[in-house]
Amino acid sequence: MPQIALLVETALGSGRQILRGVSHFVYEREDWEIFHYTGSLGAMVPDVLRNWEGDGIIARINNEETLSVIESRGLPVIDVLGNYPKSPFPRVLPDNEAISKMVLDHLRSRGFASFGFFGVEGEQWSHEREKAFVEYSNSHGFNPVCFKISHAQKRQLNWDHYQNQLCEWLLSLNKPTGIFACSDQFGPDLIQACRLAKLHVPEDVALVGVDNDLAFCEVVRPSLSSVRPNHTEVGYIAASLLTEVIEKGEKAPEVTRIPPQAIEIRQSSDVFALEDQGLKKALLAIKEGACEGIGVDEVSKISGYSRSVLQRKVKKELGRTVHELLHGARISRAKQLLEMTDLPISEVAQRSGFNHQEYLGMVLKKESGYSPAQFRKLHARVS
């Protein structure tokens, strides 16, 4: 029976989700014996690991000590953090570029044309998200303004000073603005700073985080929108790759990127940042009626614009067509129902505005590469 050590912290939702993915794999295999050391990230190497006898390790490697101890064991290792540049081990990580694009697309679809990024100095995952967000924004003609602080700097500042820095940055941004917070853990900080700066969330500042960590997202008011990056799948794939290395001696890919699932839209970004009242009416109609079968002509009528004028305005402001917005709302709802319910696929098609199961299957296959049944099976394991 393989003996596997897990060095994954449980303080944040990302670590707990990775462990959940590993647990799914363990239940399927039923032949792994797990040694799990719990602790905070950066303090994950107990002395007992030096004498632990096992076959492989899944770890979030964050410092030299962790790397040194793990390397000294000479065992197969999968790194599920990818934050330490000297780590020689295969990595399974969220697709940070896809996450960043998903956030910008969401904020743009809500009419925002000014953007900011909150990041953490010294964290590779934050750097990757910042880089992708800035480059993708630039490619669409936008220039996001970034605020970055290291964990050490934040610890050295008292709360009031830290909040004042955030307020100064927030007030410097053009309004309304959409902000991408690199991690949910900073969402409450930003919402409090907005409150101090007398900025309304989401009307003046819309916020989107990453990890869908409910301890942060649902406690604050307004509640925090967040990307579900699929850390559970990170854990599952890491366990699968480690098994291949242990049992078959196969070399794992240097980096495996796991695409994000979706954005959980909550109060912090559930707004349309448009001065044009006709466009606001159109977007609200799409949000409320897409899955009820509303079409372009009906949206046009609600907006008060002719079909051609509305199409030009939507394309100019949002970079998409009305049809694309309707289609996106329907496919998003279909995915949500497949992930979160056991409804028959025919019912999913009806509730998401596709009417026919075959049409939904064709569209989802083209969009995701999976049939509805395959999509459900994949995400049921990682939901």
Task: Report the sheet with the most strands, covering strand number, pairing sense and barrel closure.
Answer: 6 strands, mixed
Name the structural class: alpha/beta
Distance between the termini: 28 Å
The total count of helices amounts to: 17
Identify the CATH homologous superfamily of the largest domain.
Response regulator
Query: Order of strands in the sheet with the most strands?
Result: 7-6-8-9-10-12
Bulk shape: globular
What's this, in brief?
The protein has helices at 13-29, 48-51, 64-73, 96-109, 124-139, 151-156, 159-172, 187-196, 214-217, 231-248, 277-289, 296-303, 307-318, 322-340, 345-351, 357-368, 372-382; strands spanning 3-7, 33-36, 56-59, 77-79, 91-94, 115-121, 145-150, 177-181, 205-210, 225-228, 255-258, 262-264. With 383 residues, the chain is of the alpha/beta class. α14 crosses α17.
